[in-house]
Amino acid sequence: MVRVLFVLFFSLFNLAGFAQGGPTGIIAGRVESRDDKKPIVGAKVKATRSTTKETFEVETNEKGEFRFGELPVGNYVLEAEADRRNPTRLNVLQTVTAGKTTTLPKPIQLDAERSFSIISGAVFNARGLSMANVKLTIERVSSPDSSLKKGKLGETVSNQAGEFAFRFPGADAVYRITATARGYKPVTKDVDVQKDEKRNIALQMTPEK
Q1: Does the model's pTM come out above 0.70?
Q2: Half-sphere exposure (CA, 13 Å, Cβ side) for 20?
Q3: Would you say 157 and 169 are in contact if contact means Cβ atoms under 8 Å apart?
Q4: Which range is least confidently modeled, 31-35, 55-59, 103-107, 143-147?
């Protein structure tokens, strides 16, 4: 009787421990540069479990390889980042199966970090109310860099809060923002932007007479 109780207790103890820790698996892969396909050493790779949002982090070795050991079974989102590189996130979920290793079929590739300038802002009417669906265009007016051409770079429309944003490769230059809307006078504003700079502006529009 004592032996039966002992075996039963031992079995229950093992089951409780298994339920608490749960089955685990492994995710392994490699991180490399998109430009020259060389391994990236010391890249940080994060795995986020899709159901619980638990996160796990590792770093790549001298071969650009990484390995997550003992991950709880489930689906994971993988993200990678490194110094002077643009971070990336894999669109395909990686599945961890109990006792098995999930190896990424392709290396995670990181682009070299590129600088960007941003001009953002909002459009208002004479009463100070935000204006949606205002057409905005941006053009480069001048730059000390002779390789940068003048002219239109793009266009967008303001959202429901009257907000807009332009993002473009960073460079010292003067940009002209023009806002147009039916029944209102066009508004233009020249903005002097330095490399990697973020500028915020406000544009006020007045009705046509």
Answers
A1: no
A2: 6
A3: no
A4: 143-147
